[in-house]
Amino acid sequence: MIKERLLSAAAFERAQQVIPGGVNSPVRALRSVGTTPLFVKEAKGAYITDIDDNRIIDFCMSWGVFILGHNNGRVSQAAVDAVGRGSSYGIPCENETILAEKVREAFPTMERLRFVNSGTEATMSAIRVARGYTGRDILVKFEGNYHGHADHLLVAAGSGVANISNASSAGVPDGFVKYTAVLPYNDTEALRRFFSEHGHEVAALIIEPVACNMGVVVPDEDFLKATREVTKQYGVVLIFDEVITGFRLAFGGAQQRFGIKPDMTTVGKIVGGGFPAAAFGGRADIMQVLAPEGPVYQAGTLSGNPVAMAAGIETLTQLSHPGFYETLERRSDAFIARLEEIIAGKGIQLNRCGSMFTLFFNDSPVRNFRNTQRSDQQRFARYFRNMLSRGIYVSPSQFEGNFISELHTDEILDYVLESIAQSID
Predict the structure, then answer these.
(1) Is 269 a catalytic residue?
(2) pLDDT digits (tens, 9 = 90+) for 335-363
(3) Per annotation, catalytic residue among 47, 133, 146, 383
(4) Which listed residue (50, 52, 102, 269) is catalytic?
(5) Is 146 noted as a catalytic residue in this protein?
(6) Are 56 and 391 spatial neighbours (Cβ–Cβ below 8 Å)?
(7) Please, are residues 387 and 396 in contact by the beta-carbon 8 Å criterion?
(8) What is the mean pLDDT of residues 303-321?
(9) Which residue among 237, 247, 254, 420 is least packed, with the fewest CB closer than 10 Å?
(10) Residue 305 near residue 276, CB atoms below 8 Å
């Protein structure tokens, strides 16, 4: 059991005086789970330590970033060494090319790629390139898929099949999203029907090949295949948003796991080894429209930051070692098998893909965003607080994934399973 978080409470009160809501990303405030945030002092392996000196098992792992565990020694040393050579240049360095080659080795579909600083930048830029390449305007996305907070991506779903929708955030003019169409996830019929009517007007279809931002929702096999089929049929750029799934579900991400080749891909989180970095890329003929070769503009002072590049190189070097993903998958399999026994008959749905999983407090299977909305968020909030009291930080939203890392040992996972059983009861 952790002790009372008095220093974190005081830190949160102070933060609210200068930072809106006291946090720099809304979910960190923990409002939806009925508590206040803990403030982290340090992290190592599978643990975070807050400023009240509570040592807590982390299942959020910076939203999936730390597949090698927090503060991996060799990754941290690579970053320290890079800082010693200068933290930013605004001029090319060789590590940008080295990391790009490693990314392309993992994702052969990214024949050319460019680094940016966040997943939002990567998806925003990929969509701009797709529009520039096709000369079309309409973007298709899916309910419950999150692709960052760019204006044209903050779109709510319309009725039934699809619509060209209104923004789901204040501050976004309708004109910014009038070319964004939203379809239901895992609905192959709706996808084919929309493309039969509008396919020749669509520039790009962007999808999380495994949805991770409405909780983990695995695509039906025919649905994911259909995204490739209809985009090929109508000359539409298929973009896989693998900001979370890239280097997580396999070295080559979801596209390797499911055997589907998109035209463009975005990766983030793991690729920066814990530092702000992401990338977008795709077929060489598509990427040639990007300046300075072509007319589509994109730029960033800190893009290809040498510290992030060094950390990314070391991270991908370790992930490419033979057997890494097989070992992680076996450990995840064993954990999930026991978890299924614990939740049986208790009104909980377990969705899982690889080392990612979500517990939905829901009586029926979860296949799409509308299914997630039937989940009991108050019950999840009680579960979250129970787990935190036992020294385990699960992702603080019913609609997010949890992540198993290389350093979640069998002993740690045994304790987590015991705690889940107690928290649910």
Answers:
(1) yes
(2) 999 999 999 999 999 999 999 999 999 99
(3) 146
(4) 269
(5) yes
(6) yes
(7) no
(8) 98
(9) 420
(10) yes
